[in-house]
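dTDP-4-amino-4,6-dideoxygalactose transaminase (Erwinia typographi), 376 aa
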Amino acid sequence: MIPFNAPPIVGTELEYMQSAMGSGKLCGDGGFTRRCQQWMEHKFGSKKVLLTPSCTASLEMAAILIDIQPGDEVIMPSYTFVSTANAFVLRGATIVFVDIRPDTLNIDETLIEAAITDRTKAIVPVHYAGVSCDMDVIMALADKHGLFVIEDAAQGVMSSWKGKALGTLGHIGCFSFHETKNYTAGGEGGATLINDPRLIERAEIVREKGTNRSQFFRGQVDKYTWRDIGSSYLMADLQAAYLWAQLEAATRINQQRLRLWQNYYAALQPVAASGRITLPSIPPACQHNAHMFYIKLRDVDDRTALIDWLKEAEILAVFHYIPLHSSPAGQRFGRFSGEDRYTQSESERLLRLPLFYNLSDNNQQTVINSLLSFFS
């Protein structure tokens, strides 16, 4: 079976994990944690990066940092993972879903302003497939209405908008290092990027269970104490050691994924030209990271037939999110603003193809041949 995904392995992970084990510092904020955080601060230009156990934890931190209260409203697309909404629902917010653009499957920036009310607290753009939302429009709207912008950049590590790294354009950015992402911390992991300097001190406190422990270890206070609400949002240094191996090879991983992505695109262009499928669209201002390669079939029946065809050839291809607004929890905790023109229909057409760092050229060609055979 050719899997849909396999976690990236570059070869130095075990060495670094053994080093972490020998250091006597396996819990959070050890040497490898500092290396990873400083690397991202320098590479992406964020004011402060804090590693977390997951992107879910990062989003939950963000909701606390912007003081989400019961009755607040948070705008986001419905076509996203449940964590994007859960983080704010946990603080009592109502989720206001906005339709997506059919080209990028990102939130339609032209529909956001109509969804803003006097209860709106934040906009949460989700950079689907590592392709940026229109951050110029979104940041202008946030400035106009006094709103926070929390970037769900779970899929966007090493992607950019007009040359600026995703996750660094909003007030807070959230990364994922889950095993399905381009870079992993050994299965799970995330990062919170604090781009508003006013939030840095509190972010450290919230992440350390509501204490000023980080200030204590830097010698800024003579004892640490409970200062705020918070939780255990530290990544273990053992995981950070695995992640450090990946970040050292980040450029190599990125180039390999882009090469595989381009192979699919070139091979499937004739099928797209015939009208059988739609290929991904990358706006000129976006530099993507080849997080995924998807195709859009004509309808859900066509997609189901192709999934079954590939499965017969021992190739695993999958569809993605069920739109949140159509789920029981989405109907309970949120509402859809305006008309759902594209969210449901586009989600039913989309199919993700195998794409991961260690995918061999032979296996990718097998996938391509099976696809071409189906469409012929």
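The chain has two domains: 13-248, 250-375. The first helix runs from residue 13 to 23. ok done for today
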